[in-house]
Amino acid sequence: MSTVFLPPNKTELMSLIDQIEKRKTFGIISHPDAGKTTLTEKLLLFGGAIQVAGAVKNNKIQKTATSDFMEIEKQRGISVATSVMTFFYKDKLINILDTPGHKDFAEDTYRTLTAVDSVILVIDAASGVEPQTRRLMEVCRMRDTPVIVFVNKMDREGKDSFSLLDELEEELGIKVRPLTWPIGIGQDFRGVYNIYDNEINLFNPNKTNIENDVVSTSDLSDPKLDEYLGDQADELREDLELVEAVYDPFDVQEYLDAKTAPVFFGSALNNFGVREMLDTFIKIAPNPMPRESDEGPVEPTDEKFSGFIFKIHANLDPRHRDRIAFLRVCSGKFERNKFFEHVRIGKKLKFSNPYSFMAQSKEVVDEAFPGDVIGLYDTGNFKIGDTLTQGSKFMFKGMPSFSPELFREVVNTDPMKTKQLEKGLRQLSDEGVAQLFTQQPGNKKILGTVGELQFEVIQYRLKHEYGASCTFRGLPYHKATWLTSTNQSQLDTFIRIKARNCVQDKDDNWVFMADSPFLLNMAKSDYPDVVFHTTSEFKVG
Asked: pTM for this structure?
């Protein structure tokens, strides 16, 4: 048998396509407390990445969640930073990005959604669709991100399954199609029926390990159903008949086009219904997708490497005071110790220790492919939204800073630690925890955030990571808008007259702090040549 040799570049392309085919990168999103971090833990358990799962609320389980490793997260039982985790499952390399559920950290979640190809949305069976769920779903729709819904906490009393599905369709504006169906709810919860594979998975509460209690059935008339479920078997048959009558057959393409969301039921805490979702996910979820740049879409199969920074995290390891920039690989192959172009600053950089993550633990990788998320040691070169390429000059789009809603002046309570305070504020704003503005004269530092909790997190991290203490003084501003103009003299006049309300962001762009909606509208009509932007997208758009 003769061997066919492909030209080197052809061989490389084939191996690149193989690598892309293996990868699935997704984010997990939900309203706070729906069980998102617990679900992440269980996915890691199935992937063999951990042996015993933890839970965020540390009751009865002595281990806190792997993805919540910051001290403040362990204390409060909430996630405040996006975690990145990688594991193998059935020959697929899966990258999970666990996002903060709390609304005060919605911006971090938004940025994370730019780095994933699909999303799992976790819904609490008792609460249904909540405000944060709606907001997150809007972001997914803006980007046409495919969504799988996991209805959690079925072992607690909650809403009827049909009314939950109606609520999902109404509130989120997307068609749904159940692929598993719950047998009972709360006290009567007996398990789920896998519609996709014709199997019953019987419920056996087990919080920390994997259970394998699956019964295959030929179809719904199988007497095994009656044997295992008794009276509930007929109820299940009626429900499934109704499901088939009401919902269209599942179409994978419609899911990939973000028009249909498959729905799974289960209990993440008790490790139930998760396997069915994961097995289906690896069959249907998209491989790495193209990304928009200012020169058009960038395909993952492009041979030249490109990627963007979507998150920066200072002090991932408090002992080493390190700063890690998270890079999503978009095309080509990333290689260790190879020089790549940092497009914004026009410098070539190489990375001797790029990392892949398992929450806090990390290992050095020699290469990474489209879909992978890697951590790069950052000495202060990176900002969120930066693009790295193999010589090309384009920038990836769609990484805006949003106009903050709350403003506080930073008051230094320890003048001996001024340097540490300034460094901490600069690094935390580079991370995207808050936006930092400076007002002259006097170098007054103002923080802008979307939620109250961020100020607490900043204060805590400044003290514990930088040794700097401060308090915050409330400021009455209504909105911050970035200023641009083709008429420089009008812009200069505006900044001079409104000096009390004009500040600069950390990139020295001028920003107008409006005291009220009325004064913002008045400024717009008095200075028609000045444009007031509510996101910083104008910088790259």
From this structure: 0.76
